[in-house]
Amino acid sequence: MKVVAVVGSPRVNGNTERLAQQALDAIAAEGIETEVIRLAGLDIAPCNACMACRNKPECSIQDDFQSVYPRMLEADGIILASPVYFGSATANIKALMDRAGYVARNNGEPFTRKVGGPMVVARRAGHNFTYAQLMYWFMILGFVVPGSSYWNIAFGRQVGEVVNDSEGMQTATNFGRNIAWLLKTLQKAL
């Protein structure tokens, strides 16, 4: 089994990645393989609504999407993590969500019954909207989303500040544990 965390922040090792890593550490402690996929530095253009993915299981836009999407397909669990930018998710993660969503919806719904969920970091506000924005993606694509001890959000502005949000970090740990438990439970059921 494997869980990937797609980090939509342009900062490598920033607050969003640290929060996602906290969840991945809890998952890895349960013996499940993990990987961080950083969108920082990648070129993923927005969906252009060409609908070419209706005819073949890939996106017609040639960019770094082709290096990320197959890793999402191979994973048993997916976390999408984004900082809040002007009240919503980053453009990078939104472009990935739109394109992955269209390709998946037009090609057999490969994310159905995978496990996953959102994680969000902000300086002060915008968590709830961004969390919901990411959550809608999981819901429309048929993911099974475990809860935690609170919504998977944390506070931080300067790099590293998120680790001072003890409740946010504990929520991330609990989320990771719940992902691991759910994956193992589903595996036993099959």
* Rg: 16 Å
Mean pLDDT reading: 97
The span between the termini is 14 Å
Low confidence ranges: none
Architecture per CATH nomenclature, i.e. the level-2 architecture: 3-Layer(aba) Sandwich
Topology order in helix (H) and strand (E) letters: EHEHEHEHEH
How many structural domains?
1
Identify the strand order in the major beta sheet.
Answer: 2-1-3-4-5
What does this structure look like?
The structure is a single chain. By secondary structure, the protein is of the alpha/beta class. The chain has one domain (2-189): Flavodoxin domain (Rossmann fold). It is 41% helix and 16% strand. It has five helices and five strands, in the order βαβαβαβαβα. The chain has a five-stranded parallel beta sheet with strand order 2-1-3-4-5, with helices on both faces. β1 (2-7), α1 (15-28) and β2 (33-38) form a beta-alpha-beta unit. The longest helix is centred in the last third of the chain and has 24 residues, at 166-189. It is globular. The model has no long low-confidence stretch (mean pLDDT 97).
What's a concise summary of this model?
The chain has 190 residues and is an alpha/beta fold. It is built from 5 helices and 5 strands; from the N terminus they run E-H-E-H-E-H-E-H-E-H. The protein has a 5-stranded parallel sheet with strand order 2-1-3-4-5, with helices on both faces.
